[in-house]
Amino acid sequence: MDQSEYSRLLISLYQSGSEKVCAFCGGELKHFMDHGRIGHMSIMLFIDESGHDHRISPYEVWGGVAISADRVWELVNAVSSVQKELFGKEFALDGMEMKGSKLLSSKKFRWKDQLELLPIPERGSLIAGLQSRQKADPRGTSPSFIELTALGQSSIELVSSMFRLLDTFEARVFAVAIDRGVSPPNAESRDLLRKDLVFLLERFHYYLEEMGTDGMLIMDQSSFGNDWGTASRIARYFRSAERGREWARRILPVPMFVDSVYSIPIQLADLLCYVVNWGFRIPGRGMNAPHREEISTLFAGIVSGLQFRVSKADFLSYSIVYVSDPFQPRK
């Protein structure tokens, strides 16, 4: 499904008067828009992905950072301040974004350990100087040994700081992982919302219930730009599935899209997805693929602590889930 087909689906959802799904008044879906109260959505789930290129990542991961709407701007400013402290400037000033694959690359860990930990002001100054030289002469600038050390140390510390900020701002993380390269068994399965994404929506709905509020999905445009089929399956699930219609009373049933370059919360979701892919494991549930020990050691614990947990019936539900059979019907 391309973008125009997805748009037509959203229009049909908007015009539908058959479903009573409005979280505000119990009326038609279009009342979400008619109320003009998108700001009322207390919890925003910023979603990104990792490993969907099916290359070297152990898993395919969808993950998101959930934060109260009234704290998003405060979080963005806090992130920018940390970037300026550690790197000498805010990433957005150079059109840069935080990417787990770059900040947590193996070479960044090697560079980090080349010397004892440098003072933060020295690191920021070294990195800013390197970036200025590279901008002036992109091909003729080679980083020095100490500049690489500063870059490695600040990169790892930046990611650690981001997860600490999420904790400070009482954010919660959600993620679902499946084995890399799992294919739908038949054409019918391709048209259904995969079970891992159903679980992601379910956990988010549980969280909204617990918080007594409503929420919306904010997705990375660059991740979904060539995957309108996934986006449309999410919207269709809210309309056609019984559980989806129930969840649509709390979750705005139409995902919103932003460019990750301009969205720090989406970038935080990218860091989460990368850490889950390479460093977070649930051996008791079968999630035991090879991992990078340095990522697991530094980040698995804090990511686990940022999960949402809720008791449902006779089991404890976590917001990070491994799904071994994404195309099998839910039992």
Low-confidence runs of at least 5 consecutive residues: 13-41
Give the strand tally: 8
Tell the overall outline. globular
Largest sheet: 6 strands, mixed
Distance between the termini: 29 Å
Oligomerization status of the protein chains: single chain
The ordered string of helix (H) and strand (E) elements is HHEEHHHHHEHHEHHHEHHEEE
Would you give an account of this structure?
The protein has 14 helices and eight strands. A hairpin with a 2-residue loop joins strand 6 and strand 7. It starts with a helix and ends in a 9-residue tail after the last strand. The radius of gyration is 21 Å and the shape is globular. With 331 residues, it is of the alpha/beta class. Strands 5-4-1-2-3-8 form a six-stranded mixed β-sheet, sandwiched between helices.
List keywords for this structure.
single chain; 331 residues; alpha/beta; two-stranded antiparallel sheet; 14 helices; 8 strands
Give the gist of this structure:
With about 325 residues, the chain is an alpha/beta fold.
Question: Topology, pairings included?
Answer:
Elements: H1 3-15, H2 31-34, E1 43-50, E2 59-68, H3 72-87, H4 100-103, H5 106-112, H6 120-136, H7 145-168, E3 172-179, H8 187-190, H9 195-211, E4 215-220, H10 221-224, H11 228-240, H12 242-247, E5 256-258, H13 264-279, H14 293-305, E6 309-312, E7 315-318, E8 320-322
Parallel strand pairs: 1-4, 3-8, 4-5
Antiparallel strand pairs: 1-2, 2-3, 6-7
Helix pairs in contact: 1-11, 3-6, 3-7, 5-7, 6-7, 13-14
